[in-house]
Each structure stands twice: as structure tokens, then as C-alpha cells.
Amino acid sequence: MIFPMQRREVIAVAASMAALALLAGLPLADDGFWLALAITIASYVAMATAWALFSGPTNYVSLATAAFFGSGAYVVSALAETAPWPVVLVAAAVVGALLALATGLATLRLSGMYFVIFSFGLAELIRQLVTYYQTQFTGSVGRYIFVTISAAEIYWQLLGLCAIGLFAGWAINRSRLGFALRVIGDDETVAAHSGIDTARAKVLLFSISGALIALVGAVMAPRFTYIEPQIAYNPMVSFQVVIMALLGGAKRLWGPLVGVIPFVLLYEWIAGRFPNHTHLLLGLVFLLVVYFVPQGVSGWLEKAWRKLQGKSA
Amino acid sequence: MRKHLIGTLAVSAALMAAGLVQAQEIKSIKIGTAAAKTGPGAGGAGVTHWPNVKLWVAQVNKGGGILLKSAGNKRVPVELIEYDDRSSNDDAVKAIERLATQDKADFIIAPWGTGANLATAPVFAKYGYPQIAVTSVTDKGPELAKRWPNSFWLLGGGQHMAGSLVELLKKMNAEGKIGKKVAMVHVADGYGLDMVAGARPALKAAGFDVVYDKSYPLGTQDLSPIVNEIKGLNPDAFIAFSYPPDTFGFTEQSKIAGFNPKVFYVGVGGAFPVYRNKFSAATIEGVMGTGGWDVASPKIQDYIKAHKEANGGNEPDAWASSVQYAALEMLQQAIERVGALDRAAVTKELGSGEFDTVIGKLKLKGNVRENPWAVGQWQGGSFYGLSPTNLPGAHTPILKPAWK
Q1: Which tens digit of pLDDT belongs to each residue from B250-303?
Q2: B84: nearest Cα among B75, B95, B74, B93
Q3: What is the C-alpha to C-alpha distance for residues A56 and A59, in angstroms, rounded to an integer?
Q4: pTM here?
Q5: Looking at chain A from residue 18 to 77, which residues have their Cβ under 8 Å from any Cβ of chain B?
Q6: Phi and psi at residue B40, in whole multiples of 5°?
Q7: Are B218 and A131 a contacting pair at CB < 8 A?
Q8: CATH architecture, domain A7-312
Q9: Which domains, from first to last, does chain B contain?
Q10: ipTM greater than 0.90
Q11: pLDDT tens-digit readout, A80-102
């Protein structure tokens, strides 16, 4: 066995599988608003988990999520009408990984603020390149995606991506790569001195994360029917993923999960009740969260759990 | 406690009974709408979508509501349920799902923008709501209507609009008003590319001499090199398929450079009242732009007045605003003709009926509005429709006077 598991882990895996099976049944109960909401949640859980795979252990805050997401969506617009769906998905993952690889090689030697700014610029750069390509060679920036995939099918694929993301995170965590990344996150200089090929480790993980996010973009693309660079490379996606992952706590594998769900529900609730003041109220909520839950929802939950155990002991 | 429970039960039973008896009583007609209030689309939706929705609801309710045969031939007021789609198409889809399944809206107003309308079209179709899309410029109208028979496309596409512009230039050339030299520039984005794709073959077919045909990236700040280069070519007609910031930029730069062709055409934003207010009516005299309406018609005049009253003095733009309002009038008339909140019947009526709206008699063909306004011109501070020249109220173009 490649991964000898502890009893606790067996329980965790079994519980996750059961939860996944339960969640997969949702489209049978409702295929309207609740399914649409579940799609938003699942897409952000998948993206935030993929984001935290890289950014959690390394402490590199990436704002390039939109670049991967948009590229995945564009792969669909280019191939969906000619290639079978699994091929389209593989192509999207490859494009995401290659994009991460290329940018990773060029930039992961940057750190701190410089990397944040660069990753944000990357989404913009890719957007401009796609626009340039479309204007020069296709004569139209908008692309229609007429693929008949039901909302339930999109949802199931997203659940699958969430599972893959969580599994990848778990597997990496216990591998040499995961250990190397934690060392890098603590102190990159020390990591380099102890013989860790820091650039290689970071680029590898960035590619896995990029491929997963590109897959989310590919799965979501048929839902848009029509994409333009401005729609596909929406910078709000990058920001929201960071906010959600940090809200949950990026240090734990399940952190993004507990960040995304309350975030999306809260966003939806505020948007429904106060359509004219959504962002104002959301900003207020953020302030309160940062002030009262600085370690993220997962940190807060763990603290509460420890307290509970301490009392019962 | 027990007494209280029994009391509650009795009251609920009574209420239920009353509900059964008055099943036909409809308190309000729920109309849902979701469009951008925040994000990149908020500016555009704030000009064409929200003010007209607001005006329409106010007007309908001032008259008592929508007349329903099924409600005992009474007028039933409209209750508006609005959401912000935050300029995100995923959120737009969710908002329409929410309106259809949670709020159980009777009808839903189509969202703002090409992307949002296309993203939500499958949802409108799934629940059988008519979707009267206004603010989406697309040449694929007929194809989309075939795909989603409950969708209607009212603003036309780039091919028609650019073709209509060339038609106008051809006429002016035949009348000896302008020569054959045309300089054309477009923004490298959806609207600019669609328009230029329509304009190129039309200009060629009409025998025009295109001396300049280049694009500029979205968000270009300094347009003076383009203006100066074109000025050196001395064209008869200057065509800019531009977005609002560039529309303002080209105007400003041309005025500074003293570039004064006989035909000066700008794209989106040229028909906005704010364009005139920024430069003054005298400055933009003779400027042509995308859009148009029969501004002299009493109906449009009344509409402008009502729009200003309902929206704090803001005038509607001369392109999509009146069409958006007309779409809502269509909806009301279709519901009243059917006499019930029967979405299938209303959809059928929208596709086949003729409607009396602010933009005149409106009858769709294959769910698409044929021959919409494409080109207008500022004359004496008002934006007049010029082309298609066979539309009622089409004005005669004037040659652009010198900048003031």
C-alpha cells in the first residue's frame, strides 16, 4: 500500500465519501435555485481548495485564479463542438498546467508582494493575449458555447473536482513534496539550504493547482453559453477565491470548504435581502470577521473543539 | 397554551377556506428582474435597464396595474422583485433561477448585456418564461430564437447596423454631398469587431475607398496619434466603432486637432445625453452615432418627460432606453390580451402580435425586431434617427459644421 492510513484517516475518508454521495443526490431533490446555489458553492470549493493546495503551505498569495479559470473556459469554446467532452477536459487541465508551469518557471523566484502583483497581472496579460488572438485571427471576441450539459451534470463534475482537490491535498500533505512545501512556507532560505529544490517543488504544485482551476473553468463554461475575455477572465473570481480561502483558513485542507459555504450563503442572503447595498454590507461583515475570527473559520472551529474536549475531560 | 393552539388552528383553517373561495383573487403580479447594480456592467445597466424598469413599474401602477380578465377583469398592480447580478453571469443565472423557483415570479424581465442574456436564456427556456432581450447586440438573433423559442431579440446586430451606416453614406455620396474616402477605426472588442465585420464588405460593395482601417485595444487612453494620422489622410467620412470612453476621447481629440470631416461618426455613447452635456449642443452639432429614435414623435417626447420625472431629471439615451421601455410595454399588452398570467400564451402573443409602443408599432418577425434604428445625428441638441432611411421619422443628414 502506498499510503498506509491511520484509523482516524480511514474514518475521515469514509465520512467524506458518504458526504459526497449524499451531496451527489441533491439534483434529485431540486434542480432550480438550490442546485444553482450548490453549483456556485461547489465551483468555489473546488477553486479555493486548489488555490490553498499551493498558497496554503507556501504562503504565496496568488491572484492568478482568473487566468486559469478563463483559460479552461476558452479551451471549451475552442474544442467543445469538435472533440468529445472528456478530451476537452483533459485539454483544459493540460493548458492550465502548462500555463502554471510557464509562469511558475518565470516568476516563482519572486516572493511576497511581488508575486501577488505579478499573479494579478498574469490574468490581465492572458486576457489581453486572448483578445489579441481573437481580434487578429477570428474577427470576433465573443464565442458561443452551445454544449448541452444539464445543470446536474455540471454539479456532479464539480463535486468530482472537489473530491480530486481534497484527495490531492491529502496525498501531497503526506508526501515528501508536502513536507518540502511546509519548510518553504516557514523559511525559504532554510529550505534551500537543507537541499530542497524550492523552485521545482513550487512549480510542480502551482501546476497541479492551475490544472484543477482550469478544469473548474472548463466545467462552468457551458453554463455561460457565451464568453468574452472580460467574462472569462473576471478578476472578481481571483479575489473571491482568496477571500473565501482565507476566511476558512488556508493552512488546513478542509479550511477553504468551511470558508466558501458560509461566504456564498451570506453573499446570497445579503444580495437577496438588500439588492442595493450588497457590497456595503458584505464589506462590513468582512471587517467583523477579520476582527473577531482572525484565524479563519477552521481555526475557530478547532479552538472550539479543543475547548469542548477540555471540558469533557 | 392549549386554547392558544386551538385558536391558531381555527384561524388558519378560516384563512385556508377563504383562500380556496378567493382562489381567483390576485393581489399583485410579481415581476422579477436581475441586472448589474455593481461591477463593470453597473454603468450601462444604470443607463438603459434600471431607469426604464423603474419608470414602467411606476407608470403601470399609477394606472392601477395590469388589466387581467382572470382576476375578474380588474387591474392588478405590479410588484417588482429586483436582484443585483453583480455583473457576473453565474450570479445572473442564479438570480433568474431564484426568481423562477423561489419567488415564483409571474414574469421576468430579461437581464442587461449580451453575456447575461445568453447565459440566462436556458433558464428562461427551462421554466417557460418569455425573455425579451433588449441590451444584447447580436447578429445571431434568428438562430438564438430558434434555439430558445421563448426568447426575443430587439436591438439588432452589427451587420445590420454597419450595413445601415454604409447605406446612408452611399446615399450621401450619390447626392454629391460627400466623396468616397472613408477612414474607419474600431475598438478591439465585441461591439467594434461585430460592426467592422459588417462594415468592411458593405463599404467595399458600395465602392468606397477605405484609406484607414485599424483597431485599438480596449481601454486605450491616448487617441491623439490615431486622430492625427487620420487627419493627415483627409477623409470625407470618419467612422469610429468605439465604446463610451473612446467616443468621448475621439470627439475631444478631433476638436483639439481641428479634424473636421463631413461625416463624423462615433459608436456607443454618442447617443447618450451625457455626451451632449459634456461637450455642449453647439460643439457636437452634426456628430453621428450608433442608435436613433423618432425623437420628434409625441410618444417619444412624452416618454422623455416621464423618464426625467421618474429618474431625478435624467434623460433616456437615444439608443436602447426607449427600446427597453417598449419591451416592457409589449409585455404588459401581451398579458392584457391573454387576460391571464399564462406564460405560454403570453409568449405566443409576443411572437405573433403587433404592439403599440413608445418606439411606434412593433411586430416581431421570427422573434427578432427587424430594421431597428442604426444611425442617428445630433441636430440642434437633439439626437435624430437617420438610418435606416425608410423608417418613419428618419431625418435628413446634415454635413458636420466646424467644431465650436
Answers
A1: 999 999 999 999 999 999 999 999 999 999 999 999 999 999 999 999 999 999
A2: B95
A3: 6
A4: 0.82
A5: 30, 32-33, 35-37, 39-40, 43
A6: -60, -25
A7: yes
A8: Orthogonal Bundle (1.10)
A9: 26-157+297-363 (3.40.50.2300), 158-296+374-387 (3.40.50.2300)
A10: no
A11: 888 999 999 999 999 999 999 99
